[in-house]
Design brief:
Blueprint (H helix, E strand, L loop, with lengths): L2 H11 L14 H4 L5 H14 L21 E2 L7 E2 L2 H16 L1
Antiparallel strand pairs: 1-2
Length: 101
C-alpha cells in the first residue's frame, strides 16, 4: 500500500465524510475515482463497512443487478464488478443523476 492510499485508509477509518465540499465546492465523493484503483477500492471497502455490508471474496456479484457468474471489472475505476456493459452504463447513469441531480 502506498503512503497516499494508506493516508486515505486512515482518514476513512477516522470517519472522513466524502460529501463535505472544499473551498471551491468540490466534493471528494465526485472525484475520488481519479486517484486510481487502490484509493477507489479503499473507499468502496469503507463505504460497505459503514453501511454494514460485508461481501466475502467468494460471493462477488454485479454491482447493478446482483447476478453472479462471469463478471467484468469497471473500465473506469477497476474496482467494481459488473455482469455486462449494459449494467455498467445503467449504474453510471443512475450515479450521475443521484450525485449531480
Amino acid at each position: 500500500m502506498t503512503a497516499f492510499s494508506k493516508a486515505v485508509d486512515v482518514l476513512m477509518e477516522g470517519g472522513a465524510d466524502l460529501g463535505i465540499p472544499d473551498a471551491d465546492g468540490t466534493r471528494m465523493r465526485d472525484i475520488y475515482m481519479a486517484a486510481g484503483p487502490k484509493v477507489t477500492a479503499i473507499i468502496h471497502t469503507w463505504e460497505r463497512r459503514r453501511a454494514g455490508k460485508q461481501v466475502p471474496l467468494g460471493e462477488k456479484r454485479c454491482a447493478m443487478c446482483g447476478k453472479d457468474g462471469k463478471l467484468l471489472w469497471c473500465a473506469a475505476c477497476h474496482s467494481i464488478l459488473y455482469c455486462s456493459s449494459e449494467c455498467q452504463s445503467m449504474r453510471a447513469i443512475l450515479s450521475t443523476r443521484f450525485v449531480h441531480g
